[in-house]
Design a protein that fits this description.
single chain, about 220 residues, alpha/beta, Rossmann fold
């Protein structure tokens, strides 16, 4: 949704109006939610890094970089992806609506991801290639101000949330993709488990779950 009549467009609105979406894995409504939450963090003087788990070809990553640039933010930006496509499903990911999601689907190379940044004349983020279940505390920044989770499956979302939890800065926001996507039920299951174990508020907007933890480092 764009800015209402009479409202001043946000930087998010301006970026979405100016630049194309380069893949079909995120739509404009979802992208606006993600960027608007990050923009609120930046306006509030966000401390800590920006992290993205599951970057695919880089549509969301490109817009995150543009938004950081627009605010002249010095926040470090890290992305995490196997660049080998989807891992095998577990029983928690099974859905008749999601039969198109199979092992190896949505594979894109790290080279292609970085090429999209070069085409956009944008500085690339720090890229971490590997499976999320292999991540340790040493693989993520010690302080995180904004986290976007796009792991699709239960274990990927669970492992992403696990590794960022100890590092969340005061005022940090987590956005989980596919929370309300019936084709990928594992994302909601992992998120609900995390919410039961951590204090905070959340809301569902489009297919996304926007989380604001209460107790942070």
């Amino acid at each position: 949704m764009a800015a209402q009549r009479g409202e001043r467009p946000t930087v998010t609105d301006e970026l979405l109006a100016k630049y194309p979406i380069v893949t079909d894995q995120v739509d404009r409504v979802e992208l606006r939610v993600i960027l608007s939450e990050l923009e609120k963090c930046l306006q509030a003087g966000m401390t800590g890094a920006v992290v993205e788990f599951g970057c695919y070809a880089g549509t969301t990553s490109l817009f995150i970089r543009r938004l950081l640039n627009a605010y002249e933010s010095k926040a470090a930006f890290h992305v995490y992806d196997s660049f080998e496509g989807l891992p095998p499903k577990t029983r928690l990911d099974e859905s008749r609506a999601g039969e198109q999601f199979v092992t190896g689907a949505l594979a894109v190379s790290k080279k292609e991801f970085l090429l999209n940044f070069r085409k956009g004349n944008l500085a690339p983020p720090f890229v971490h290639k590997g499976w999320f279940n292999d991540l340790t505390d040493e693989d993520v920044p010690r302080e995180i101000g904004f986290a976007f989770m796009d792991g699709d499956y239960y274990e990927s979302v669970r492992d992403s949330l696990r590794v960022v939890s100890p590092c969340l800065a005061s005022g940090a926001v987590i956005v989980v993709d596919d929370y309300a996507n019936e084709a990928l039920p594992g994302a909601a299951k992992a998120t609900d488990e995390w919410l039961r174990e951590h204090d905070g508020s959340y809301r569902v907007q489009a297919s996304l779950c926007v989380i604001k933890p209460f107790h942070q480092n």
